[in-house]
Amino acid sequence: MTKFEGKKRIVVKVGTSTLTHSTGKTNIARMAKLVSVLSDLKNAGHEIVLVSSGAVGIGAAKLGYSFKPNETKELQASAAIGQCELMFLYDKLFSEYNVVVSQLLFTADTLENDEQKGHLLDTFNQLLEYDVLPIANENDSVYVEELLNGDNDCLSARVAVLINADILIMLTDTDGLHDDNPSKNKDAKLISNVDDISEDIFALAGGAGEKGTGGFLTKIKAAKIATDAGIPVVVMNGDKPTSIYKVLNGESIGTYFSAKGDNKC
Q1: What is the pLDDT of residue 157?
Q2: If you ran DSSP here, which 8-state letter would residue 28 be given?
Q3: Contacts of 261 (CB under 8 A, 6+ apart)
């Protein structure tokens, strides 16, 4: 795996399962640790873009749900409520490190329209020039495809491609891709490096988790989008955000998906 030195542009995607407890309520300690790591990386000269899920889960918890709502309109309403809370928490936590954050809500359609995509790229670049940390999320209240199926996985990859990131790091509730379902087979082995995302790799992907919507299939799809564009991807457990340091230092953490033309492990 490559060691990332100097000023690099990093996209970090965090899923609902990383941001919340099993109760559905916000995991404040883990969120605070993630914020401290990303702030420190900014201080070290990295440009950071955070793609964050969690609005639906946080919104549902605030409404008193003990489970994820089922109806699409309930999910959309939960997202609208949770997005306010999510950004409030990020703004409060990042401000402790004097990091200014911004919110970017858009849909997949934005990335399909050349003019809108150009405007979005201009916004990202200007925010990074201002030394701001952009926080992106799907606009789940008006666009439901990612809300129902993706948990921002593919969105994070497309953002990485759009801004020409150097690496995409995806934080989830598993250690990475395994040769079998680790929740059912205790002997399942972690696959530390994937040089080619073949049909066999897609076949290893499991279904969606209880709180998230992406499962590993959408993470494989996201990794395919990014690596085809020359951007390496790491999928790792988000329970210890400080492991991001190890990733950038070239240590083997989670599953490393090599970019095209990069088969280093």
Answers
A1: 95
A2: H
A3: 230
Q: How far apart are CA 130 and CA 45, in angstroms?
A: 13
In terms of C-beta density within 10 A (0-12 exposed, 13-18 middle, 19 or more buried), how is residue 108 classed? middle
Helix, strand, or coil (residue 115): helix
What is the predicted pLDDT for the residue at 164?
96
How far, in Å, CA of 46 to CA of 91, rounded? 19
Q: Where are the beta strands (DSSP E) in the chain?
A: 9-14, 47-52, 101-106, 133-138, 167-172, 193-194, 233-237, 255-257
Closest alpha carbon to 171 in 31, 24, 63: 31
Q: 234-256 in b/e burial notation, b at 16+ Cβ within 10 A?
A: bbbbbbebebbebbbeeeebbbb
Between 259 and 186, name the one with better pLDDT. 259
Whose tokens are 């640790």? That residue is 33
CB-based contact 182:188 (threshold 8 Å): yes
| More confident of the two residues 65 and 243 | 243
Half-sphere exposure (Cβ direction) of 155: Cα atoms closer than 13 Å: 31
